Amino acid sequence: MREYLRLHGQLKESEVLDISIQLAEVLNYLHHHNPAILHRDFTPDNLIYSSDGKVTVIDFGAANVYNTGKTATLIGKQSYMPPEQLRGQPRPASDIYSLGATLSYLLVGKDLASMGKLPSFAGCAVSGDLVDLLQDCTTFDWENRPNAETLLQRLKGLQTRPANRAAAKLVQ
Fold first, then answer.
1. Catalytic site residue 41?
2. Separation in Å, CA 46 to CA 35, 36, 55
3. Which one of 43, 111, 122, 153 has the fewest beta carbons within 10 angstroms of its own beta carbon?
4. Does domain 2-168 have CATH number 1.10.20.10?
5. Contact of 14 with 114, CB cutoff 8 Å
6. Domain segments of the chain: what residues?
């Protein structure tokens, strides 16, 4: 995905929504296992974007089952790793953070400069509703992030919203 953006530039909101739904479905599937499966390295570098708009998640070498209360090996890329993962305590919400950081990258073409701080969307044709969702995904406190199922529902709602309402809330 990173190479695709290097060659073609940042993506439109409609493209990012299509991709985000596919990725949220993957996380929803992984997180609904018992115990949940955590990818732990969900970044643009681990996504393959095909010409038909399909996204494939790769590099499950860091994936692990979620063990409550156990410290895990530190794995991931700094701009996409939430604070709990830096402390060796990844959880399903950690993958949600990484997804939010990845979607932000697809829209602006820049990695997060600091933890939980989205880049400026000024000049991007992105709705305030999507920016709000990305802020929810990348919030510092994992307890305040949506789970994969809620995220998927919210993304589908954004994808089907009336075009005139979305245009009225574009970030300038």
1. yes
2. 23, 20, 10
3. 122
4. no
5. no
6. 2-168
- Is residue 55 within a helix (H) or strand (E), and if so which, with residue range? strand 55-57
Q: Are strands 47-49 and 55-57 parallel, antiparallel or unpaired?
A: antiparallel
Q: What are the pLDDT digits (tens) for 60-98?
A: 755 555 455 554 554 556 789 899 988 888 999 999 999
Q: Which of 18, 41, 111, 132 is catalytic?
A: 41
CA angle 77, 1, 109 (to 5 degrees): 75
Distance CA 129, CA 163 (A): 12
pTM score, two decimals? 0.86
The SS3 call for residue 47 is: strand
Among 83, 96, 163, 170, residue whose Cα is nearest residue 130 = 170
Give the model confidence (pLDDT) of 14-30 as tens digits.
999 999 999 999 999 99
